[in-house]
Amino acid sequence: MKNTILSLSHIKKRYPGVLALDDVSLDFSEGETHAIVGENGAGKSTLIKVITGAIHPTEGEMYFEGKPIYNNSPSKSLQVGIVAIYQEFNLFPFLSVAENIFYGQYPKKQGIIVDFKKMEQETKRILEDLGVDIEPLAQVKDLSVGYQQIIEIAKAVSHKAKVLIMDEPSAPLTNNEVDCLFKVIERLKAQGVTILYISHRLEEIFRICDRVSVFRDGRYIQTMNVAETDAKEIIKIMVNRSLGEQFPKRNCIRGEKVLEIRNLKTNILKDISLEAYRGEILGLAGLVGAGRTEIVRALFGADKIQNGQFLLHGNILKINSPRDAIQAGIGLIPEDRKRQGVLLGMSITENISYAHMKTISRFGVIDQTKDEYEANRYMESLKIKTPSIRQKIKNLSGGNQQKVVLAKWLFTNCEVLVFDEPTRGIDVGAKQEIYRLMHHLIEQGKIIIMISSEMPELLGMADRIIVMHEGRITGEVMRDQVTQEDIMKLSSGL
After folding, report:
1. Which helix (H) or strand (E) holds 157?
2. H-state helical runs in 412-450
3. For residues 356 and 118, which has the higher predicted lDDT (pLDDT)?
4. Is 250 helix (H, G, I), strand (E, B) or coil?
């Protein structure tokens, strides 16, 4: 029997109108990988913040290595050996990779001078252990989202944690990067490090975890040995119901051509041409860096183009900025929801209306009654879980934040909707809600372009899939005529 390293006793956390954690008691053992699962809003993120001292519990106690921790704080938890990797990055974009990894713990010469050479060498060693080739002196702002996530992992590993909390660490990673991550986890386990692993990808739990604890509506429900359960049982306990088919069924009836991209060229994209039709979901597949996101950023006016045309209903669009794209009827649900999709410090109402303020204002003055009416309408129709439309969006779960982003674009009455990694960081129950909403939008006549790194999601949702490799289109396939292996070959340029 392994020793208990971390213990929670009757933890409660109350917010106005919400009991985020309700009497949670749970133990974690030395050297185990312990999965924490539950739907969005189940209390997982609040649990992490309590453990790391980012927030204080309303009631209850926490013990580390048998000793109580009073007045916990992020610095205190770091000192005892508790390190967390959160979903939202905590990096300095204009500092180097090495400076980010060793920020606050720079190696020094003579006690006062930063030893940049040693810092660079240690950074290189850590990154090699992770199995990635990243230049230690590169600025973080120049890295892809996938590489930025790896820097977060490397930063946590550098602290030599006794308890390492990973909140959706694999979400932005490629398959190869995920394999590297799992190898690191196995090495840390062998050294006696306890891993708390939060992930909506249940297949990962069965690959690397020893035990799994299920949370629901702020309550701890049950802990099971991974070897003695399966995904269906975990999902049923998580949602307290049977989910049925993972991807809702829909008959694709292709209609008129609505959107066309001709000969698009940027610093990354090389002569991209594609078409989107009413009645189908168009999927974009490819590995990280293939150029999928760059296509939709160019379409949305976020990236400058060197050549090419965008046509809507046969008419050439002049898109030089996101404002132009919005006026043309194009909406983008971005890959990085927290930094590019929402205003975290603002309310649900403000987030829904800010892209189309003119419909709720007159002479520059917002009609509060109309503003609240529209917010309530979308909150009800999209089933956004919140005690109030005035709730700040930073306090919502990932799934509910995603629904608010979608509500924002529906409020603009856009015709073309781009979903870039639509279910990243979202639980299985919320995923199905997003999938059903996408099907409903198609039935309403919307055009949907979907980017996803999850192959089952692409094959389950997209009717037609365009595959990319290094800025080029390497294939176009129909869902019912292709396998995951076929798409992987095209994604690899084979």
Report:
1. helix 145-158
2. 428-443
3. 118
4. coil
Q: Which residue has the higher pLDDT, 195 or 188?
A: 195
C-alpha–C-alpha distance, residues 39 and 43, integer Å: 9
CB 105 within 8 A of CB 159: yes
**pLDDT score of 315:** 95
Residues linked to residue 216 through DSSP beta bridges, in sequence order: 219
Give the global pTM: 0.61
Residue 38, sorted as left (phi over 0), alpha (psi -120 to 50) or beta, turns out to be: left
Query: pLDDT by residue (tens digit) across 438-465?
Result: 999 999 999 999 998 878 888 889 999 9
pLDDT at 255: 92
From CA 148, how far away is CA 89, in angstroms rounded? 8
- Architecture of the domain whose range is 257-491: 3-Layer(aba) Sandwich (3.40)
Find all residues with CB under 8 Å of 402, minimum gap 6, and list them. Answer: 333, 337, 341, 422, 423, 426, 430, 434
Quick one: tokens of 130? 């992770």
Strand partners, 309: 262
Mean pLDDT, the chain, whole residue set: 87
| Cα→Cα distances 425→38, 124, 129, 315, Å | 12, 29, 26, 37
What is the edge-to-edge ordering of all strands in the sheet holding 416-420? 330-333, 416-420, 447-451, 281-285, 464-469, 472-478
Does residue 85 contact residue 73 with C-beta atoms inside 8 Å?
no
Report the length, in residues, of the chain. Answer: 494
- Give the start-to-end residue ranges of the domains of the chain: 4-239, 257-491
Q: What are 459's two structure tokens? A: 């094959």
Distance between CA 479 and CA 464 in Å, rounded? Answer: 6
Of the candidate ranges 244-248, 326-330, 431-435, the one whose mean pLDDT is the lowest:
244-248
Structure tokens at 313: 């209903």
Dihedral (C-alpha) 333, 334, 335, 337: value to the nearest 10 degrees?
A: -90
Contacts of residue 269, Cβ cutoff 8 Å, sequence gap at least 6: 291, 294, 295, 298, 471
| Cβ contacts of 466 within 8 Å, gap of 6 or more | 274, 282, 283, 284, 285, 473, 475, 476
Cα separation, 231 vs 229, whole angstroms: 7
Record the tokens describing residue 143, joined without a space. 């890295």
Class of domain 4-239: alpha beta
Q: Is 131 exposed, middle or buried (0-12, 13-18, 19+ CB in 10 A)?
A: middle
| 66-84: pLDDT as tens digits | 999 989 999 899 889 899 9
4-239 shares its CATH topology with 257-491: yes
pLDDT exceeds 60 at position 242? no
Which pair of tokens denotes residue 460?
């389950």
CA–CA gap between residue 402 and residue 200 (Å, rounded): 15
